[in-house]
Structure formats: C-alpha cells, structure tokens
C-alpha cells in the first residue's frame, strides 16, 4: 500500500466581515494508490473546502490555510510549492471535477478545446494532436458522435453529458488522483448511476485514486474503499466501507445511515431527519460539535472533544461513548454491529 | 485523562437549543428599510435630496432676495457676499434663482416619472397579464417606438407645440414610457404564475382586481428603484433641452435654462454657470446613489 | 443568421417609415406654412413661385406621397431658408465631421473605459478601482454639456488646444488638436459607462465556477485572463454599446454647439432656430437612419460573438 497523499493537521479558515469562520479544524487522512476514499458529511461540514485545499485552490483572501497544515503529495508539501510547480501539479497529477456541470464549463469555449487545453499545457501537444486526443477522451466517456460534439459549446450538451465532459477534462492527462466534489448532486437520479458507473470503469482502466466528496451515503456504498465522516470541520469517524456500513460507532454516522431512504421502509414511517442545524463555525463549540443534536449526548460531550479511539488498523472514531465510563447504548434499529465496549 | 464519572450520564438533545433561531422575523419592508439605513452613501444621498427638495419648495419664500427682483446696481456680482451665489446679468439673486429653477426641474422629474409610471404600469400590466395576441401587438408597438431615437421625437414635439413645462413633460413621457412598460410586463409575467395569483383567480377575482391588488404591489420594489433612476434622467433631459433653447423659456427658469444663460458669460462670470451646473450634477448624483442603495436594499436575494 | 439579419432590416425599414411619417405629420401640423416667416420680406410673386416649387398649396396627402418618394430615392430636399442649398450637400459636407467626432468619442470611450474597467475588476481595492468608482460617479452625474463647458473653460486656449473650431479637413492629423476636446467631452459619459459595466462584468465572471475549473486544470495567469475571464466578460459589453452610440449621437448635437464644430448636429440646431422645416425633417430622418443602422450592426456583432445565440439561429 503506498500512500500518494497525506494530509496532516489541515486547518482552513475564512475571514468574513462577521469574523473568522473555521471551516476545517484540524484533520488528518491519507490516500493510497488506486483506492477510492469517500468523504461524507452534510453541507457546511468542510468537505468541499478540504478538497479545494488539496490543490491549494483556496482563494487567499478571504480564505487562509493555517500554519502547521501539511498536504504531502508523493512526499512533497503542496502548500509550500511555488506557483509554477502548482500549475504543473493541477490538471496533470491531481485533477478535480465539480458539482454543477452547468456552470463549471466555460460557455464561450468549445468542449473539445477545453479538454485539449490541459493536454497542450501539460503534455506539450500541438493543438491538432491535442484535439484528436480530446475526441478520444470524449469517446472514452461514452459520448456519441464525439468528433462532432468536440466542436460544440457546453450549452449544446445535456446535464449528464456535461458532467461526462468534465470527467474527460479531468482525466485527459491521466492524473494520479481524481477529486470528485459532489459529482452527481446536480444530476437526475438515473443519470447519477450512469456517471458513477463511468467513474468506476475509468478508475479501473486508468488506475487513478479517487477522493469522492458527497453527502449521499447511497452513492458511496458501491464505489468507495474507505469512508471518512466529517462534521463541523472535523473527521469524527473513519473506516473501510464494510466497517462503516456494518459496524458504525458514532451517533452521527448512525443518523446518516438512518436518513438514507430505503425501498424497504414501511410507508407509514416518516423519513428520518436529524433535528437541528450544525453549529456556527464563527464560534465553534468547545466540546464535541455534534453534542447539541445527539440523542446520546452526555455532560462530558459538551465540555471537551472526545479522543480518537482506534478500533482496527483502518477503523477509528471520536466519541465519548467509547470511553469506559460511558453507559452501554443500543444502536438504533437497522444499524449493524454493537457499540464497541472495551470495558 | 482523569474524568468525572458523573459526566457520563446520558442527557440527549435539548430540543430548544438545537432549533434555536436567533433572530425575530421581520417583514420585507422593515428589512429593506433597515438595510437601507445601514448604507451611509444612500442615507447621505437621501438626506441631501430631502434638503434640496425642501429648499426648492420653501426656499423662495424665505430668502432675503426674491428671485425676480432686479437690482441694476449689482449686475453679475461674484458669490459669497451678500448674495450667496452672486447675481446674474440683470442683477437677480442667483441663489434664489437656483432654488426657483430647482422647483421646475424637480417637478419635471417627479411629475414626468409619475405620469410615465402610471401609463407604463397600465400598459405593461395589461400586456403581461393577458399575454397572447394582445401582448404580441402591444409589444410590437413598444419595439418600434423604442427603436426610434427618442430625442428626435422630443425635439420635434417641442418645435411643434407651444413651449413650456407641460409640453416638455408630455414630450419626455411620450418617448420614455417604453422601458417602464417593458419592465412591468416582465414582472407581471413572472408573477402571473405564482400561487397566490392562482388562488385569487380561483376565487373569481376579475383581471383588473388581480392586476391592481396583487401584481402591482409586488412590483413596487422594482418600480421604486426604476423611479429613482428615472427622475434624474428627466432632470438631465430637461437640462439638455433647455440648453438647446428648447426647454423652459424665460421668464420661467429651470436649472437647464440657468446653465444656458450662464454659458454665455462663462469666461467672465463663471459662477453663473457653475452653481446651476453643480446643482444639477449633485442632484442627479444623489438620485443615482440612492437608487443603487435602494436596489441593494430591496433585493430579496440579499435579505439577511 | 441571414434570416435574422433580414428580419432586423425589415424592422429597420418599418421604424424609419414611422419616423419619417411622424416627422412629416408633426412639422406640417404647425399652423401656417413654412414660408410664412418670410412673407414680409419677399415679394408676392416670389412667394408664389416658392409655394409652387415646394407644392405648399397641394393637399397633404400629395405632399406626403412626394415626401416619401423623395426619401426613398435619396433626395432629401432643399433648404427653405437658403434656397438652392440641398440637404444632400449639407449632409455630404457635414456628416463626416460628426462621424469623426462620434467615432473618436466611442473609441476613447471603449479604449479608456474597457481598460479601466478590466484593471479595476481584476485588482479590487487598488487605486485604479477607486479611480474607476470616482469616474463612474462623475460620468453619471455630470451632464456631457457641463463637462464640455468645463473642458472648454479649463483647457481652451491653453496647451495649444483651440477653444472652438474644427480645422481644415485636408490635414487629417494636424486637425486632431481641434477634435481632442470635443471628442473627450463627448466620450466622458461613455468612458464612465463602459468602465463601470466592464468592471461589474469581470467581477461576475471571476466568481464563476468555470474559472475554478480552469485553475484546477493548471491554466496559467495570462491565458486564464484572456481566454476565460475576458472572453466571457466582454460579451455583455456589446449590449451596452447600442445605447451608448445613441447617447453619443445625441450628445454630439450639444457638443457641436459648444465647440462650434460644423457637423450635422449643429446644423440641426440651427435649422430648428431658423425654422427651416425641410432641413429639420430630412436631418431628423437621417439621424434616425444612422442610429438604426448602428443598432443593427451592434446586434449582428452580438450574435457573432455570443455562441449561445448562434445556436438558436442555426436551428431555425
């Protein structure tokens, strides 16, 4: 297993007129070659900011990547790279696709040109060669009539096709890491499945590692190798897909799993939703950020951050329920495994 | 880490805290007014305009020198003495004349905009509400009228009709109503399919009732912003036309007419040009800044 | 594309016809006929001859028919006040002057305005940003004729800049100093307008998602600015160009007065003072023509430049 990406103590804040918003409050994670890591959490938990930080795409005012953060790609700290090195990295070693394909493509440039742009920059191809490659990429992402389509503009593509085009742009230079920031959120459910299948297929063919950012656990089950659950700027649980789905330990993870609508849910049951809203990141709470909304909260949860409890080489969780002093709790119905009792 | 065992009792969520919404609900208008108040530039402009309006309305009654008193001993006097703005070529107090001229310019601005508004609302309201053929015909007319360079028509009308404030207003309105009509039509079409209108229809309200009581009040925000931009445009047009000798004729005066008169003696007595010109510029500026502020304050998307 | 152009030309002709008719109706609704003002000065027989020549004693509809016929064939008629002076000649002599003034004004407006707007948009809170805000405020509030008077007052007669006049046409470049102040005065509102608009357009574009996509691809600063930011930000500027041309046309009427520039704007004002009705009618129609043609050209340019509009055309 070699780690191609290591993130250490990443802290990112945004300076707004109302004060400093701490979007990411100290997270660590790693990515191995060829694997798929999913970062899951609700809106505002910091997952998008994290993904942008990896390629140092945070606008620095008003954003700020704090001192002490490290993002190591193949051993080199991205945050210390100069502009030239960063530009070489972006689009060729690490690529990114974004959430809304409608607005993420330049409306006045043909799709083909937008793909060949990376090839010209990073591979030094001539415009003609790059265009041929671009057409090949469009075929690779299953867009019919690729040679005609390459000369068209984004508004002539449908939503699903545009996202495929974005994938083509991102994969044109065969990057080692592909960051997909909510790639299917803006698409219809039927198209979602197609896009996820396409991404899996391409990942197999090209051997790239993928970081998948999403708030939808349903999308993750088929595709990810490991999962990280983020809440309020922190990672509160991480593990392999099996560990998270079959033995989740954090009440927030339980709540997320419960909210995935299932075909088997009885029609009399209402859809589960977590009460309340995430804490204000202008003055984040001192203790566990989920305490205010947690059914299993205890006094200690509000007072201090729980420590990291390691359950297996790949599975760890930050929750006071893991502490020997905590009472035994039963997991909600339908959630697998037992609460780990190291008591 | 040493921890107190007592702290490990389950408490669960405290509902009130989780759902806490910190701010009291306020209406759209209160929110808009609040936002406007926070905008120093807009408030300054508003204050300035109120000052100008009050001065022009009441000023001529209370100034020491009347605007039409001619003192042949004091022709073309420089400003900052007994006469604040100096005097003009027949010895009249320029300050008083600027105030009285302001009355005319402001009236043209407000009345013109008001008339254009009423007409544009009705026209646009009908066109937008009924749609279909009526809309197509009405909009074609607007299209052709809008393509005509409006100043040409204004100039022609001013030649043909007796000069004066009424004609001026009429000419400007006839050529200016097209944009407000289009604007209202657009708004009405947007609102037409909203739910409360459908509810009103379902209750059997007549089209005129719907247009008047539902559609128009909801376009007022847009109307207000438009008005604050149009009033200075009318003042500008009046100045422009008077400058060409087509607008307000003596013995009446307006800011534009004063600039026209001042131009003649510009090299020797620049104050006769500068004061009315500054009056026009500052007023137009204030309206525009206020309009910008109003637009920001009334935009529902920026609601805080 | 051709269908679009043809449709627009059709609209153009209709509008011109409306303008011509309106002009005709308005002028002829003035009580008394045009020659009345000269009645005291000229002998009876001359008046009769003039009346016949201009068919002033004919019923309205015949005169209207003639009028339209003349316009269509390009005959703009003759001045009533200065008999023998044909409007066509007037236009031939004076339109190039106005055209030069107008074109220079628009060029200044675009060059300076776009430049300021782009820099202000790309470098927020720099001194250029504040300068642009200031210029925008001034441009919006100071009427063009006030600006002209200020320029004349401030610079006329100094630094070798003449106060009034236009210079001989044969010396295109030395005549430049005559054209400078008038063009500047006329361009001021355009500079302010373009600068303000371009700045806001750039600010809009810079925050768009596709700029982030381009950065994530590793596109460097210059191609990013040119191909991604500017290419998108400048398209809406065309939509402002039409009204700006109108503003410049109208403004030239006043500017020519102030600077004694022998263009058709000044001619129009003079003919109004003189009540020279044929000239008024013809020049009005001519002004309308220029404006409408300019509009058409701008619209065509817009269609060429914006790919989104291209599509609807090719599908037709």
Structure description:
The complex is a heterotrimer of chains A (about 350), B (about 300) and C (about 325). Helices cover about 30% and strands about 20% of the residues of chain A. Chain A has eleven helices and 13 strands. In chain A, the strands form two sheets. An eight-stranded mixed sheet of chain A has the order 7-8-9-3-10-11-13-12, with helices on both faces. Chain A starts with a strand and ends in a 25-residue tail after the last strand. Helices cover about 70% and strands about 0% of the residues of chain B. The radius of gyration of chain B is 27 Å and the shape is flat. Chain C has 13 helices and no strands. Helix content of chain C is about 75%, strand content about 0%. Chain C is flat, with a radius of gyration of 24 Å. Chains in contact: A-B, A-C, B-C.
Order of helices and strands of chain B: HHHHHHHHHHH
Q: How confident is the prediction overall: mean pLDDT of chain C?
A: 79
CATH superfamily of the domain at 97-265 in chain C: MetI-like
Helix content of chain C: over 70%
Order of helices and strands of chain C: HHHHHHHHHHHHH
CATH hierarchy class name of the domain at 97-265 in chain C: Mainly Alpha
The structure class of chain B reads mainly alpha
Strand content of chain C: under 5%
Looking at the overall shape, the CATH architecture of the domain at 97-265 in chain C is Orthogonal Bundle
Biggest pleated-sheet summary of chain C: none
Q: Write down the CATH class of chain B.
A: Mainly Alpha
End-to-end span of chain B in angstroms? 44 Å
Structural class of chain C: mainly alpha
Helix content of chain B: 55-70%
* Strands of chain C, total number: 0
**Major sheet description of chain B:** none
Instruction: Tell the overall outline of chain C.
Output: flat
Give me the count of strands of chain B: 0
CATH topology of chain B: MetI-like fold
